[in-house]
Amino acid sequence: MAEALVNGALGPRALNRALLERQLLTRRRRLAPARVPDAPRPDPDSPVPVRFVAPFDNLLLSHEDRTRVLPEEYRKLIFSRNGIVLGSVLVDGFVQGAWRIERARDTATLVVESFRALPDEVTEEGTRLLEFMAAAADHEIRFVVR
User: In the chain, what are the domain boundaries?
Assistant: First the structure.
């Protein structure tokens, strides 16, 4: 490719395409170790903790196949048409809801919008999130069913 560039053998479109293909190949090579079929896997019965994932987190933004963590039916509930990515609630490693913190005077309210029934651990993890995000405020957790 470099020789073709020096000799002017590639036109601008062909050169642009060649550069993009090279970038794609480089990305695939970098990602390849994550797709090793013989890599050790955790025990399938290992408990997966509930997690609150931040808005715009790479977990959702950088996956080529988001259905590994975000069921297709919930995609439009997390990604808005104008590019906003909401905070999400992971249960057993999959998005099961969205969250936001509303502040009013001395109170911070964690609003959890559930897409399906959520386990009690969501309240426990939500309390930890509020202690971290709004330590000085009074805390409330409100669940909204979508």
Answer: 2-35, 51-145
